[in-house]
Design a protein that fits this description.
Membrane-bound Lytic Murein Transglycosylase D, Chain A, alpha+beta, three-stranded antiparallel beta sheet, 17% helix, 175 residues
Length: 175
């Protein structure tokens, strides 16, 4: 799966990234942009509010070629989970998903997923948005480099302006 990092800002307990831009295509509606283009990581009313669009039906076509600012649901936590460096992935639950299966797929634990999301039970439904804490490595690049402080999820790569960085780490083994 492709993971695209976006900066995240928290305001009033609401987590929304503010960097996504989208140019509408013929037939696009706010609802279709939210559901198909951004896979449920945004909502039609968020797009409407962010762009100063007057209240309108989310299923009414947007003029083709309209440049839209699209706020995305994201995770803003500290860079640590249970004392281990971590990055956080915002995940839209698919039909048939379970918390244990999602946790296994992303190399985390169901307990950590439930804790980060303040879940009393492991019950999830298709379309729910949850946050996954992924074990990570942090870079040891000097502070004057653009890659300083980079966190990369365990087992993944990050392509930066200066380097390609692969992470393979655990609590006792940070590379």
């Amino acid at each position: 799966a492709l993971r695209v990092p976006v900066p995240c800002a928290c305001s009033g307990g609401v987590r929304r990234a503010t960097s996504a831009r989208y140019v509408s295509r013929p037939g696009d509606t706010l609802a279709s942009i939210a559901a198909r283009v951004y896979a449920g990581l945004t909502a039609p009313d968020w797009i409407r509010d962010s762009n100063g669009i007057p209240d309108a039906d989310a299923d009414v076509a947007v003029d083709a070629g309209t440049a839209l600012h699209v706020p995305l649901h994201c995770a803003c936590f500290g860079g640590v989970d249970n004392g281990v460096p971590a990055v956080y992935l915002t995940y839209v639950v698919a039909r048939g998903d379970t918390v244990p299966a999602i946790a296994k797929r992303y190399r985390t634990t169901a307990t950590d997923v439930m804790s980060v999301n303040d879940m009393a039970t492991a019950d999830v439904a298709a379309g729910d948005i949850i946050v996954l804490p992924l074990p990570a490595c942090t870079s040891s690049f000097p502070t004057f480099t653009s890659d300083h402080g980079l966190a990369v999820a365990n087992g993944t790569y990050a392509v930066t302006a200066d380097r390609c960085v692969q992470c393979s780490c655990g609590p006792a083994n940070l590379e």
